[in-house]
Each structure stands twice: as structure tokens, then as C-alpha cells.
Design brief:
The structure holds two protein chains of two kinds. Chain A is an alpha/beta fold. Chain A contains 13 helices and 22 strands. In chain A, the strands form two sheets. In chain A, strands 3, 4, 6, 7, 9, 10, 12, 14, 15, 17, 19 and 21 form a twelve-stranded mixed sheet that branches. In chain A, strands 2-1-5-8-11-13-16-18-20-22 form a ten-stranded mixed sheet. Classes of the chains: A alpha/beta, B alpha/beta.
Chain lengths: 466, 449
């Protein structure tokens, strides 16, 4: 792809480190690669067979045309599917190899820990390299670990839920992930337990042409609650990397799960993620989704509302700058009576960037007394930028209230004038307006993420006007 | 899909198209379309624009071109179908009338005062062939699909209404498109409306059909010249066994005004692509629709508000109801191109679900490539508001009457804004009658017939 379109200067997480890999990396995807990943991890046979079956589906399944349209130059055979950094997983920061440590120092992971965040997992390429769980959580019976460890230590929970919310055959990229997944977070919260602080993970791609395929599974038992936060970054290379994660959430009756993502991949990452939650009776699932980075993101977090009175929310902010396309959205499937959902999407496009909201609200037969409200607002900051909205609504029941509203506009001249008449520069005024525009989303974030998001927006807004 | 079998299996071949009468330019046009058709596959629901439709029930080999009325001499009055005659007789406030059967004009009349000012009504393939030549297809060629190719390969010509620059037509010109024949007949009604610079033209287009299993592949093109003003009301009153796929497209010149209203009541499956293209700066389109589907009907609307000119505006309001096992689809797109700075476009779809078994889909899309624009869309699907019912019932109004009032009220804001206000009363009545019949499931009657 033409790198000249990409504004390299702005991406502040774009360094890369020279790292030794424990395993000779190979490009491309075939049965041998999948077998090798499974053997290196010493997985049980059922997982090995799941992977191989998923690979068959991946090879057979065509990409949907609307999906393929966005990535004409993606070459599945030019990607490293598995990279394992030297040294194993550690839980003492000082034991990490220097190069990896440096990377994460820059990302501020130990800093986060000093702030007493609940637990931190860091994934480097394909493997989780650092994991620290707070001891008081272990006392509550909460498991927070990486998926590979979970498969070894809690195989019965993993086996019961793995692939039940997102089967390998769901789409081409979920099949790909199911075949080559590595790492990702595993969270299990027992009945009635409220995890008091957010659990956190960071994901980083370091190599050129690397794929990262983390697999996250969150199981929250009856009446329990948890908030999970993830951040992502990658260095800037001239060729593209692929991030294709699968995130499955099982929210048992009366539980509450909040999943927050601040995606800040460098502008050469294809970010193609399947995220889906199953919400049982009276459960609540909230996806908070900030998409700032990547070359192309296609991600539609969804909630399948399977039990009466279940509730789903997706709150999202997308920012697309030069060379970026944020094709994000949400999906709510109302399969039970008295379920409700809210989708709120704010998108900003600038410097020729393109934002797309693509969403679906579906009400199945038998799902009576359903309420759904969708609101999409878009700001277009210059004449080269583009905004699209494709909201689907499919209604098979009578007693439902489905509402959708959207607006597209530019930064109001009267608002700018007002702020500038109070002594703000045009850039300050514009970034204040944009921050106000996304405020309904930022206020739902933990403080340090809200601050980071506002700061990133301010950074991106430099030179936005005039 | 076995390409070779489907391509040759239907009756719509280049040879069949060649057999139709008409001027050379029309024959050439038909042949080119027939050749495109021969090379193409019929659409399937796999294609995004056919999602939710009943296109998978459409089998091209089940249809053949309908018999056409004789060409040449205008048919005598007795050739006007009785249903059309009685509908036309109610609309005495008119300045012209064109009746077409299976797409060919059988009757045309015009106020002599307008005739002397150069206004024309007639058939684009015969008496108006020279005048229609330039404009025929000029609007709708911009939006081709498999069905427009089918239409273009087989349309006999059809009603042509043209108003020269500066002429004001005060009472509406009525265009009746009637489709009839035995089961399996396919007709290709084409309506061409050209409003010259600064003219004013009100048109009613009424599409109806017989009771057999019929296919209507209709096209209406509306060219609104600079500073012209067109009011266009299209009434779809097809038979309950007619399968229709129609395109209505308008091009608007500089400071042109279009108020377009569609009222859809009939058909088994009736799909209308309703498109407006703002080509001239400062043009203004108001796009309205009322639809009511009951029994097993499916009414399917695909709208496009396309803006290439700056300072142009469009405002769309589509309201409908679904009853019994009926199905409605609204899928609309606002496209503001890079050049459409300071344009404004708005889009609203509301659907009332009157039964549990009915289905409604609503997909209001936006593609915005200009930044200095105002653009909104909204859509809502829901039952009759229980609060409104409660309010009326608490004032002693019986529940059945209260429901009737709420539904009437739901449609009233569109009816009030429809063009050709004088002709709207019977349409309002037709919708009310459909609602009043809700206890009788019409599908049973259709099957019995």
C-alpha cells in the first residue's frame, strides 16, 4: 500500500524493537503451521482438532463481498501466523527480556500496575509475556489469565465455552482465528462476585508482516460483574500486519459485563475482529469501543440477548485520519421478550479518512416488548473526508419500539466563533468541540483511558481547521 | 448457479425484442438492452440491493411478453379498461389524460389551450417519436440493473408528457398505466415526463392491473429543467397477483423543484426504486410515500437521494403500515458527492406494525463525501402507541374507532404534504378502507380468486 498517505509523524507508539524469537518464524498458513502451533503449546487433542477443522472452514469459506471490498491487497500467505518471543511467561517485571521490557515501559504497563489496577496481562506478538494477578482477586475465586494458561489450568471451563458464542464457521476471520489463535485473555468470575477494579490487558504487534490472533473468553456467572479493559498498539512498518481477534463473552443470568477497548494500532494494521456476547436472563453487556488507529478496522461488537430482560449496549468512538478507514458498528439480536438495547456511535473523519457505521438491530419472532435505540453522529472535518452510515433493522415482532437516528455535519461555525471570541485558538476551539462531541462515550471510561482518549483526539486535531 | 441454463431459458431474447414495432432509435435501444440481458444473470438476494426482497421467487422462464393493443390508429374509447375509465371520470379537474395498456398508449387527450402552447401528450413510439427521442432513457439510463435492461428490451414506448419552457400547466395531466393479460404476461410500462425550463407541471401517474398473475416491469423518468416545478403523484393500485419491479427516477436542474409522492397499495410483491438526482445548484426535492401492506403482500422501497450539485436539498418522508403477514422494506441511501457542498438531505422512515406476524425492515443509509453539509436520518418501527389509544379511549371513544383515528393520524402528515392535494382524498379513503378491513384477511380472498 502507498505509505505516503500515512501520517507517520503522529503515531506515537510506532517504534519497533529488535527481538530474538524462540521459534523460527515462517510465513503463510497450512496444516503444518497449525499443527506446529498446537504442538509447541502442548495442547490437548480436542483443541488441535478444533484448529484443524477451523483451518478447513477458513480455506473453504469465501469472504463476503462487502468485506473483501475493503482489503483488496491483503495476502494471507504473506503473514507470520505465530511468533514466540524468547523466554517464557513471567510474573516479575524485572525478569522480562530487556527489549520486551523496554517496549512495555514505553507503553506504560508497570505504571498501570503501580496504580493498583486489578490485573494486567501483556501480549507480545502471539504470546502473553507478562502476567500479574492481584492476590485479592485470587482469593475471590476470579481467574484472570491468558488463554494458553487457562487451557492448561481450567480446561473444563474453556472446553465448555470455547467457540460456543462465535463458532469457527461464523465468518472467514473467526475461522482463521480459531485455527491459529494464540494468547488473549481468559476471565472467569464466580457466582455473585463483583470484581471491584477493571482488569486490563495490552496487546502489541512488533514484527513486520505479523499476524496477531488473540482469543479472549470471558465467563461471568450468575449475579457477578466485571469490567475488562484492553489497549493495543504496533510499530509502523511499510507493509501491513493483520490483527484478527475473537472475543467471546458469556454473561449468565443477572450478571454485568463491561468490555472496553481503546484500539490504537499503527496505520498499517488490518484490524478484523469478531466480538460477541451472549446475554442471558436479566444480564447486561456493555461494549465500549474506541477506534483510533489501524489502516482498516472492521469490527461490529454484538450482543445476543437470549434471556428475558437482558440488556445490551454499544458505545463507540471512531476517528479516521489520513489513509484510515474505520468500518465499525454494532449488532443487537433480540431473541427474548423484554430485552432492550442502546447503540451510540460517534465518528470523526479528517484528512481524507473514512468512517463507516454499519449496524444491525434484529428482533426475532417471540421477542415481544422489545426496545432499541440507535444514535449515530458523524463529524466530517474537511472536504476530503468521508462518512457512511448503514444501519440495518429487521423486525419480526409487533410489540417493539425500534428507533434510529443519525446526523452528519461539520464543526459548527457559530460554536467555533463563540469559543474563539473567548480567546481560544481555532485549533483549541475545534478540539474542544470534538472532545465535547465524544463526551458521552469518554465519560463511561476509567479515568486514565478517558484522559488518554481526549489527549489522542487533541493530538489528532492539530491543524484541523484553517 | 448454472449460468448457461438460466441465460437461455426465458422468453426475453434479442429475437423477441427485434419483433416489436417502433422507430429505429427505439428498436436499436431495445436490441442493445436485449443483448445485455442475454449476457446477464437475473439478480438474487445474495446481492446487497436485493437483500430482503422476494427476488428468489422470480423465475424469468415463467413469463412472456404480454399481448399489446394494436399500433397506429388510436384505440377507440371502448379500449379503455373499465377500471381506468371509472377512476379517470372521478378526476374531472384535469388538463390532459393518457391511457396506456401494457405500456402502449391507447388514448390521449389534452386541453386545446395547452396544445396551442406546445404541450405534448402521446406515445413515445408513435406520434411523439421524434420529440421523445432525445429524452427517452436520458434519466433512467443512469441507474441500470437487470430489470431496467429487461424493461428497455421490451418496452413498446409509452406515455410521453412534455411541457415547453415557461408554460404553466395548472390542472394535472393524468397518466394511466394498465397491465392485463392471462397468467404469465409481462408488461413494460414506461412513462416519460419532461418539464422545460421555468415550466410548471402537475402529473398523476396511476398504475393498475388485472387479476391474473402478472409481471409489471415499470420505469418512470422525470426530467425537471432549470427553474421548473414538477408535482408528481404516483399511485400504485395493482392487482393482488401482480409482481412489480419499478424504477422512478428524477433529474433536477438548477433551482428546480420536485414534489414527488408515492402511494402504494396493491401488488403481491411490489418493489419501487425511487431516485432523485440533484444535478443543478439550488434544486429542491421533496419525496414522500404512504404504503399499506396486508395479507401476504410485500412492499419494497429502495430510495436514493443523490446530490452532485452544491446548495441542493432533498427531504424524504416515507410512512407505512404492515398488517397480517405482510412485509415492508425500506432501504434508503443519501449520497452527498464531493461537489455537493452546502447541501442538505434528510430522510425519515416510520413503519407501523399492526400484527405480530408482519415483518418490517428499515435501512436508512448515508454516504457523505462532502463536509459542509447538513444531513440527518431517522427511522422507527413500532406498534400503535398505547398511550395515544389510552388517551382517546379515556375520552369515551370506542377502541376500534380510537385505533382507526391513530392510524389515520399517523399517515395524515404525509397526506397533507402530498402533491396534487385535490386528488388525495380518495387515496386517504383507500388507506382507511384497507385498515378497516383488518379483520378480513385479504390473502384468503386472493387465493380464492
Amino acid at each position: 500500500m502507498a505509505t505516503s498517505e500515512i501520517d507517520l509523524g503522529r503515531y506515537k507508539l510506532g517504534w519497533h524493537d529488535t527481538v530474538e524469537y524462540a521459534f523460527e518464524p515462517k510465513k503463510g498458513l497450512n496444516t503444518e503451521v497449525v499443527e506446529e502451533i498446537s504442538a509447541l503449546k502442548g495442547e490437548p487433542d480436542w483443541m488441535r482438532r478444533k484448529r484443524l477443522r477451523a483451518l478447513e472452514i477458513f480455506e473453504r469459506k469465501p469472504m463476503k463481498p462487502w468485506f473483501a471490498k475493503n482489503m483488496p491487497d491483503l495476502d494471507f500467505q504473506d503473514i507470520y501466523y505465530y511468533l514466540k518471543p524468547a523466554g517464557g511467561q513471567v510474573n516479575d517485571w524485572d525478569m522480562l527480556p530487556e527489549s520486551v521490557k523496554e517496549t512495555y515501559e514505553k507503553l506504560g504497563i508497570p505504571e498501570a500496575e503501580r496504580k493498583f489496577l486489578a490485573g494486567v496481562t501483556a501480549q507480545y506478538e502471539s504470546e502473553v509475556v507478562y502476567h500479574k494477578n492481584r492476590e485479592d482477586l485470587e482469593g475471590l475465586g476470579v481467574y484472570f489469565t491468558d488463554m494458553d494458561t487457562a487451557l492448561r489450568e481450567y480446561p473444563e471451563i474453556v472446553k465448555e465455552h470455547f467457540g460456543t458464542v462465535i463458532p469457527a464457521g461464523d465468518n472467514k476471520f473467526s475461522a482463521l482465528n480459531s485455527a491459529v489463535w494464540s494468547g488473549g485473555s481468559f476471565i472467569y468470575v464466580p457466582e455473585g462476585v463483583h470484581v471491584p477494579m477493571p482488569l486490563q490487558a495490552y496487546f502489541r504487534i512488533n514484527s513486520e508482516n505479523a499476524g496477531q490472533f488473540e482469543r479472549t473468553l470471558i465467563v461471568v456467572e450468575e449475579g457477578a460483574s466485571v469490567h475488562y479493559v484492553e489497549g493495543c498498539s504496533a510499530p509502523v512498518y511499510s507493509t501491513d500486519s493483520l490483527h484478527s481477534a475473537v472475543v467471546e463473552i458469556v454473561a449468565k443470568p443477572g450478571s454485568r459485563v463491561q468490555y472496553t477497548t481503546i484500539q490504537n494500532w499503527s496505520p498499517n494494521v488490518y484490524n478484523l475482529v469478531t466480538k460477541r456476547a451472549k446475554a442471558e436472563t436479566e444480564a447486561t453487556v456493555v461494549w465500549i469501543d474506541g477506534n483510533l488507529g489501524s489502516k482498516l478496522t472492521m469490527k461490529y461488537p454484538s450482543v445476543y440477548l437470549m434471556g428475558p430482560k437482558a440488556h445490551g449496549e454499544v458505545l463507540s468512538v471512531a476517528y479516521a485520519g489520513a489513509g484510515q478507514h474505520q468500518d465499525a458498528g454494532a449488532k443487537m439480536v433480540h431473541a427474548a421478550p423484554e430485552t432492550s438495547s442502546i447503540i451510540e456511535s460517534k465518528s470523526i473523519s479528517k484528512d481524507g479518512g473514512e468512517t463507516t457505521y454499519r449496524g444491525l438491530v434484529r428482533v426475532d419472532e417471540g421477542a415481544t416488548n422489545v426496545k432499541s435505540n440507535v444514535r449515530c453522529d458523524a463529524l466530517i472535518l474537511d472536504e476530503r473526508s468521508v462518512s457512511n452510515t448503514y444501519p440495518y433493522q429487521e423486525i419480526a415482532e409487533q410489540d417493539v419500539r425500534i428507533e434510529h437516528e443519525a446526523t452528519v455535519s461539520k464543526v459548527g461555525e457559530d460554536q467555533l466563533f463563540y469559543l474563539m471570541s473567548r480567546g481560544l485558538s481555532e485549533t483549541e476551539a475545534a478540539s474542544m468541540i470534538v472532545n465535547g462531541f465524544i463526551e458521552p462515550i469518554t465519560k463511561t471510561l476509567p479515568m486514565e483511558y478517558a484522559v488518554e482518549l481526549s489527549r489522542l483526539i487533541e493530538l489528532e486535531m492539530e491543524g484541523a481547521v484553517g | 448457479m448454472a449460468a448457461s441454463t438460466t441465460q437461455s431459458a426465458h422468453a426475453f431474447t434479442p429475437d423477441a425484442a427485434r419483433a416489436l414495432a417502433g422507430p429505429d432509435w427505439l428498436a436499436d435501444r431495445r436490441l442493445q438492452a436485449a443483448e445485455r440481458l442475454a449476457a446477464a444473470e437475473p439478480p438474487t438476494t445474495e446481492a446487497e440491493i436485493w437483500r430482503y426482497s422476494r427476488i428468489d421467487e422470480f423465475d424469468p422462464s415463467a413469463w412472456r411478453p404480454a399481448a399489446l393493443p394494436p399500433v397506429g390508429e388510436q384505440a377507440e374509447d371502448h379500449a379503455i379498461p373499465v377500471a381506468v375509465r371509472s377512476a379517470a371520470e372521478q378526476m374531472v379537474q384535469r388538463s390532459g389524460l393518457v391511457v396506456a395498456v401494457n405500456g402502449r398508449v391507447v388514448h390521449a387527450e389534452l386541453d386545446p389551450a395547452l396544445e396551442s402552447k406546445g404541450v405534448m401528450v402521446g406515445d413515445a413510439a408513435t406520434e411523439c417519436a421524434e420529440e421523445a427521442r432525445e429524452d427517452f432513457g436520458a434519466v433512467t439510463d443512469a441507474s441500470p440493473d437487470w430489470f431496467t435492461d429487461l424493461h428497455d428490451a421490451f418496452t413498446p414506448g409509452g406515455p410521453f408528457v412534455a411541457v415547453p419552457a415557461g408554460v404553466v400547466v395548472d390542472r394535472p395531466i393524468l397518466v394511466f398505466q394498465f397491465v392485463d393479460g392471462p397468467d404469465g404476461s409481462a408488461a413494460f410500462p414506461h412513462t416519460l415526463v419532461v418539464a422545460g425550463e421555468g415550466s410548471h407541471l402537475p402529473v398523476l401517474e396511476h398504475r393498475s392491473s388485472g387479476g391474473a398473475g402478472l409481471l409489471s416491469s415499470a420505469v418512470a423518468e422525470i426530467a425537471v429543467g432549470d427553474n421548473a416545478n414538477v408535482d408528481y403523484l404516483s399511485v400504485q393500485h395493482l392487482g393482488r397477483r401482480t409482481f412489480e419491479v419499478a424504477l422512478q427516477r428524477a433529474h433536477l436542474g438548477r433551482n428546480a423543484r420536485l414534489t414527488s409522492g408515492a402511494v402504494a397499495l396493491g401488488g403481491s410483491y411490489a418493489r419501487l426504486r425511487s431516485e432523485s438526482m440533484a444535478r443543478g445548484e439550488g434544486s429542491e426535492a421533496k419525496l414522500l410515500a404512504v404504503y399499506f401492506a396486508d395479507g401476504d403482500q410485500m412492499l419494497d422501497f429502495r430510495t436514493l437521494q443523490d446530490h452532485e450539485a452544491p446548495r441542493s436539498s432533498s427531504d424524504l418522508l416515507f410512512k407505512g403500515a404492515v398488517e397480517h403477514r405482510a412485509h415492508s422494506v425500506y432501504s434508503g441511501l443519501i449520497r452527498l458527492r464531493e461537489t455537493a457542498q452546502k447541501a442538505g438531505a434528510h430522510q425519515t422512515n416510520r413503519t407501523l406494525k399492526l400484527s405480530r406476524e408482519s415483518h418490517a425492515e428499515s435501512v436508512p443509509n448515508l454516504e457523505i463525501l462532502a463536509n459542509d453539509v447538513q444531513c440527518t436520518h431517522a427511522s422507527a418501527i413500532g406498534p400503535i402507541d398505547p398511550d395515544e389509544l389510552y388517551y382517546l379511549e379515556s375520552r369515551g371513544i370506542p377502541p376500534a374507532v380510537a385505533e382507526q383515528l391513530v392510524v389515520t393520524g399517523f399517515f395524515e402528515d404525509v397526506f397533507a404534504r402530498l402533491p396534487l392535494g385535490a386528488l388525495v382524498a380518495p387515496l386517504r379513503q383507500a388507506v382507511a378502507e384497507k385498515f378497516a378491513r383488518r379483520d378480513r384477511d385479504v390473502a384468503e380472498e386472493v387465493r380464492g380468486a
